[in-house]
Write a structure and sequence with these properties.
Helix 9 (378-390) runs antiparallel to helix 10. The two termini are 50 Å apart. The chain is globular, with a radius of gyration of 27 Å. By secondary structure, it is an alpha+beta fold. Strand 3 and strand 4 form a beta hairpin. 33% of the residues lie in helices and 22% in strands.
């Protein structure tokens, strides 16, 4: 592609000096400095805070700074929540969607962290008198929970761009202001109107007289069939500033379209440009009325005031107070963890994982359920459980690895790991223990039939659990009460390479998880006046088989591979393991402590093993060393042996597992060590807690800590360097 889109030079903002920063932000907290220069900090914002990143930090990181904004008051994934991903280096909205975050996209993705390709998402060109240039890396990027701001300090003017997510309606707005001489702007957005660029024939209707553009999905594609009345509206509230509104013809000097999937707004010289995108999946007139309201004037305070109330509600205005080191940092981080959690639940995707729109069965049963219950948001958890049990397959009694919600509920994984069937029971026990809403056991819930459609028949939640338990019993290794490994467990990298292993291998962690939930559910039933002695007997049998088959010489194995002929099992990820060369596994030790499978001396013994073999300076490792990299035919574990990328489960420090170990520490009364584990997992505190931690975005949860080896060969050869 030739023309302005490709040839425009990037216009970066000049750095701000200390005096300018002090004048703009007199109340700064948790300042971060590099080479003596201030590079990021937080500032108070009502009950929460804002994070500010300066240009110098963005330039030092391989990963770009970004944030996901979401609209409305919804506590779950719904049809009215709009969201967009904003990137510091001049992507003012990408992956903008309403409802389903995969299929209902308006603007395209920005896939390039280095900003070399510039067609993705919403971009802005500026002409200050020397031709069009692309606004790219700003002097300063400021993130709030529902808005963000880019500030470009140039020689003779300051340009500010602000993105706002309405706290009430499915609407997002952008305000561009100039402090200094007027200049021309050309805002353009790469279009999707579906799932991927160029896949579907969405409809774009440009109305230059009303200064707005309507977008509708392809009626013959998935989205258009499910929502034939869906519409987005782009409207401006500064029509006097506009020179032209149209398609990709505005991106070329000759004014001729190349048929590219773009829309654009071009202005006269101006000091202000404002525009908004509204949407509705069912009522295009509602989207028009909302666009009319915003076209009359975009009031940032009016958009963000309901958003502030929403985040106050979500967080309960919780504060962490105390004199100890790290308290203030975790207090500052908490609203951002809450924001990350609600993005994960309500508009499922991530900064670096742009695909989404589905709920992972395992995922939704953990983070969202535990987060909401901790803050006493009981009603949304009840709704999650209704949705979850409705996904249970009637004939098989289990759940898919992930599933989409209506109207796309038939889109789901056809398989699941061996532990997935246990998680709905865990979430149910969490809810019932926290709320004592025992009547929920009798709540009528449908199933999924063989065609994956919702059944007309409903059954009580307790009947769903009975079916789940029957399925679990069917999956025991013959002669034991140990559930088969199946397609894998929580460590996604250790999926079995040999189909034989699916049926004859056992994950000690999965067994420990099941044992814990059976005991909890038996207690719940007793509380409801429905004692079940069979459940307690089953739990006792699992306890006995766990210690008989999975623990040897006082150490729990990661896995046990049984012999169909009846010989004793071969233990893997155990000091006796000669097949993999791995001796210790974190997950079964942690879950054995949490699930009550170990007595006090056994728990303390395993805690000592974790400290000696799995505790690294930056946190707990899943195993004592990485699985050997073969790069060819997989022998035992699929991804672990063939993934060239050395991170997350491959690099062994999976933050989620590290936090579960912190939970186990608390169960043993090791509060000081658990506090240190929290600090290591905090993007604010980690650089002080871990001496050689690299800088990172300080208001975003990071899913792993990755040792900086250039490749897996070096990681295997020099693994002791990571421990040291």
């Amino acid at each position: 592609v030739r023309g302005l889109l490709q040839d425009a030079a990037a216009l970066a903002g000049d750095p701000l000096d200390d005096a300018e920063i002090a004048a703009r932000y007199p109340e700064r907290t948790h300042e971060e400095r590099a080479a003596g220069r201030l590079v990021s900090f937080f500032v108070p914002d009502g009950a929460h805070n804002r994070h500010v990143v300066l240009r110098d930090k963005e330039r030092t990181l391989a990963r770009r700074h970004g944030t996901i904004l979401r609209t409305g008051q919804g506590m779950l994934l719904d049809e009215t929540t709009m969201c967009a991903t904003c990137w510091m280096h001049g992507v003012f909205a990408s992956l903008l969607s309403i409802g389903n975050t995969s299929f209902h996209r308006l603007f395209s993705a920005s896939r390039d962290p280095y900003n070399i390709t510039r067609a993705g998402g919403l971009r802005i060109l500026v002409d200050t008198g020397s031709g069009w240039r692309l606004l790219a890396e700003p002097s300063l990027f400021e993130m709030g929970l529902s808005d963000c701001r880019w500030l470009y300090r140039l020689d003779d003017r300051t340009i500010t761009v602000r993105a706002l997510a309405s706290g009430e309606d499915p609407a997002m707005a952008w305000q561009v202001t100039v402090d200094g001489p007027p200049c021309r702007f050309l805002a353009f957005g790469g279009l999707v109107l579906g799932e991927r660029e160029y896949d579907t024939a969405g409809r774009v209707e440009i109305d230059p007289d009303r200064h707005r553009i309507a977008f509708r999905p392809d009626p013959n594609w998935l989205w258009g069939k499910a929502y034939p009345d869906a519409a987005y509206i782009l409207a401006t509230s500064t029509p006097a500033a506009l020179d032209s509104i149209g398609g990709d013809e505005l991106l070329y000097a000759d004014g001729q379209s190349r048929g590219g999937p773009f829309v654009a707004l071009r202005t006269h010289p101006t000091t202000a440009l404002s525009f908004a995108v509204t949407g509705s999946l069912r009522d295009p007139d509602e989207a028009e009325r909302l666009a009319d309201r915003l076209a009359a004037g975009i009031d940032a305070a009016a958009l963000l005031s309901p958003a502030a109330r929403y985040w106050d509600h979500v967080t309960r205005r919780l504060r962490l107070e105390g004199a100890g080191a790290g308290v203030a940092g975790l207090d500052t981080l908490f609203p951002w963890l809450a924001q990350n959690a609600m993005v994960h639940l309500t508009v499922p995707h991530g900064l670096e994982q742009s695909g989404g729109a589905a709920w992972g069965t395992r995922d939704v049963c953990q983070g969202p359920v535990e987060f909401l219950l901790a803050l006493e948001h009981d009603a949304p958890v009840r709704d999650i459980l209704r949705i979850l049990f409705e996904q249970q397959q009637e004939a098989r009694g289990d759940w898919p690895q992930w599933f989409m919600l209506e109207p796309y509920a038939q889109i789901r994984d056809r398989h699941s790991h061996g532990d997935v069937i246990i998680w709905p029971l865990k979430a149910l026990c969490d809810y019932l223990e926290a709320t004592n809403d025992l009547a929920f056991l009798d709540a009528p819930v449908a199933w999924r039939g063989e065609d994956l459609a919702r059944t007309a028949r409903t059954d009580p939640v307790s009947t769903h659990v009975d079916k789940m338990l029957a399925t679990v019993r069917d999956r025991f290794i013959p002669g034991t009460q140990l559930i088969r490994y199946g397609e894998g467990d929580w460590n996604d990298s250790l999926q079995p390479a040999d189909p034989h292993m699916r049926d004859w291998m056992v994950s000690s962690w999965t067994v420990a998880l099941l044992y814990q939930q059976l005991g909890r559910y038996a207690e719940v039933l007793a509380r409801a006046g429905r004692p079940d002695s069979d459940l307690r007997q089953l739990a006792a049998a699992i306890h006995a088989d766990f210690h008989r088959h999975l623990v040897r010489d006082g150490v729990v194995a990661g896995y046990a591979l049984f012999d169909p002929a009846g010989a004793g099992p071969e233990l893997l990820l155990h000091p006796s393991d000669t097949r993999t060369g791995l001796a210790y596994s974190l997950l079964p030790m942690t879950q054995g402590i949490l699930g009550g499978l170990f007595d006090e001396p056994q728990a303390r013994h395993h805690l000592g093993l974790i400290r000696r073999h799995l505790a690294f300076p930056d946190g707990m490792r899943l195993m004592d060393r990485p699985v050997a990299y073969h790069g060819g035919t997989e022998r035992v574990f699929r991804r672990a042996e063939s993934a060239a990328f050395f991170g997350r489960e491959i690099g062994l420090m999976y933050t989620h597992a590290h936090l579960r170990q912190g939970e186990a520490l608390l169960a043993l009364g090791e509060a000081r060590e658990a506090w240190q584990a929290l600090q290591a997992a905090s993007p604010i505190g980690v650089t002080e807690t871990v001496a050689n931690a690299a800088p990172r975005q300080r208001n975003a949860y990071f899913s792993s800590s990755d040792a900086a080896f250039p490749d897996r060969y070096r990681a295997s050869a020099e693994w002791d360097r990571a421990r040291d």
